[in-house]
Amino acid sequence: MKWILKIIENQPYKVTCLWNDNVIRTIDLEGFLKTAGKDPDNSYSQLLVKTRFSEVKCDGSTLFWENGITMKDIDGKTYPAALDIDPDVLFEMTINTIPIYRTL
Fold first, then answer.
1. Residues of 64-82 as b/e, b for ≥16 C-beta within 10 angstroms?
2. Phi, psi of 101, deg, nearest 5
3. What whole-number distance in Å separates Cα of residue 103 and Cα of residue 44?
4. What is the side-by-side order of every strand in the sheet holding 4-11?
5. Domain range holding 81?
6. 94 with 27: CB under 8 angstroms?
7. DSSP 92
8. pLDDT tens-digit map of 11-68
């Protein structure tokens, strides 16, 4: 299983990240977001706004945007939560890779 350790660079709809296998990969989210954005009720459509997309963060496993969705707890109380994307899905969106070699 692969996951994202940190963000290296963030451009509109493309995020370059260091993954747990010591490979830097650029993820192209443009097609994914344009498809999601066809439905304005889709949570991912908000990421088509470049300033919102630029708020991307990494939690040590995947990419997320704070306060991207609303969750409801067991008592029915709603609260803001992070909007994230499964790292396996992000891995499939990779457009280029750069292996990182460590010297001992």
1. bbeebeeeeeeeeeeeeee
2. -105, 130
3. 40
4. 4-11, 14-19, 23-28, 94-99
5. 4-99
6. yes
7. H
8. 999 999 999 999 999 999 999 999 999 999 999 999 999 999 999 999 999 999 999 9
Q: Residue 41 domain-assigned?
A: yes
CA–CA gap between residue 50 and residue 41 (Å, rounded): 18
Tokens read off for 30: 């443009």
* pLDDT(101) > 80: no
Q: What is the CATH number of the domain that holds 80?
A: 3.30.2020.10
Asked if 29 and 15 touch (Cβ cutoff 8 Å), the reply is: yes
Sorted by sequence, the CB contacts under 8 Å of residue 44 that are 6+ apart come out as: 32, 33, 36, 37, 83
| Whole-angstrom distance, CA of residue 74 vs CA of residue 56 | 28
